[in-house]
Amino acid sequence: MTARRLLLLGPPGAGKGTQAIRLANQLGIPQISTGDMLRAAVAAGSEIGKTAQAHMDAGELVPDHVVIGVAEERLGQSDATDGFILDGFPRTRAQAEALDGLLPKLGCKLECCIALTVDPEELVARLLKRAEIEGRADDNEKAIRTRMAVYEEKTEPLIDHYRAKSILALVDGLGEVDEVAVRITAALG
Ligand code: ADP
Question: Is 16 in the active site?
Answer without folding.
Answer: yes
